[in-house]
């Protein structure tokens, strides 16, 4: 895909091909079994939980949801409150989604059937999250679970979505092996990942150029920030951003994270 050189051309979106995540999962399982070959025949599975919605203090408003990065990498799932499993014996991918209420549907729109998630995200099976323990015990007959736990080398912070559920103490749980394999796997991009990165980089570059073209003496910092955010959203559908826009003039430009507070 390409980002637009001129807004007059209209807009262009980059449709995500979820077969990208199928390839990523296959690569991760292969790398994991190369590192831990004993897991191949031990009724073992990789289990991850995605992010959850966060309320804004005591209000009835939630922060805009951003998926947990490792879960996004493996499954590409946009919805909060999900879990995912990779069976290391069969290499099948299983997605678990929330069982939503009638009230949720009233406020947020139609509830999608399990078949939608299976087809859309290109996984092998889909169940509700409240069925996780039963599926592990009765269908997959798993004995060992590899769950995500580790420390981000840049931030120094630990992962916050380490999988747990009622009955997890019945399994042998490994919290050390998965994180380094996933972190290393994310370094090496597939061709589909690189296509997506090229699109986003081109779009971001055009937005920076657009800001430079539109800036004039007397304009405020918020004008430049607004121009950038509008450009990437209007021309490429980029609603979310990796970090808060850093747009400082004069002395403010010396602050690396200016604008975050």
UniProtKB/TrEMBL annotation:
Homodimer. SMART domains: AMP_N. The keyword Nucleotide-binding does not apply. It is an enzyme of class 3 (hydrolase). Belongs to the peptidase M24B family. Eukaryotic-type prolidase subfamily. It catalyses: Xaa-L-Pro dipeptide + H2O = an L-alpha-amino acid + L-proline. Residues 16-156 form the Aminopeptidase P N-terminal domain. Keywords: Dipeptidase, Hydrolase, Manganese, Metal-binding, Metalloprotease, Protease. Its EC number is 3.4.13.9. One of its GO terms (molecular function) is manganese ion binding. Its cofactor is Mn(2+). One of its GO terms (biological process) is proteolysis. It comes from Phytophthora fragariae. The keyword NADP does not apply. This is Xaa-Pro dipeptidase.
């Amino acid at each position: 895909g390409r980002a637009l050189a001129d807004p007059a051309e209209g807009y262009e979106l980059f449709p995500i091909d979820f077969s990208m995540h199928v390839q990523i999962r296959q690569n991760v399982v292969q790398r994991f079994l190369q590192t831990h070959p004993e897991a191949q025949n031990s009724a073992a599975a990789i289990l991850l939980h995605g992010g959850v919605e966060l309320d804004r203090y005591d209000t009835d408003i939630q922060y805009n949801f951003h998926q947990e990065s490792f879960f996004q990498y493996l499954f590409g799932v946009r919805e909060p409150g999900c879990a995912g499993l990779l069976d290391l014996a069969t290499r099948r991918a299983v997605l678990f989604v929330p069982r939503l209420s009638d009230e949720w549907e009233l406020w947020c729109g139609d509830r999608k059937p399990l078949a939608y998630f299976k087809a859309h995200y290109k996984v092998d099976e889909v169940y509700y999250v409240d069925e996780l323990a039963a599926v592990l015990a009765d269908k997959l007959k798993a004995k060992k679970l590899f769950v995500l736990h580790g420390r981000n080398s840049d931030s120094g912070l630990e992962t916050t979505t380490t999988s747990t559920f009622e009955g997890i103490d019945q399994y042998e749980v490994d919290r050390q092996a998965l994180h380094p394999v996933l972190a290393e796997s994310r370094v090496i991009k597939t061709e589909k990942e690189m296509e997506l990165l090229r699109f986003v980089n081109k779009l971001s570059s055009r937005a920076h150029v657009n800001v430079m073209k539109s800036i004039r003496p007397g304009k405020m910092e918020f004008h430049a920030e607004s121009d950038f955010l509008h450009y990437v959203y209007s021309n490429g559908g980029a609603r979310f951003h990796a970090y808060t826009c850093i747009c400082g003039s004069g002395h403010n430009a010396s602050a690396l994270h200016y604008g975050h507070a």
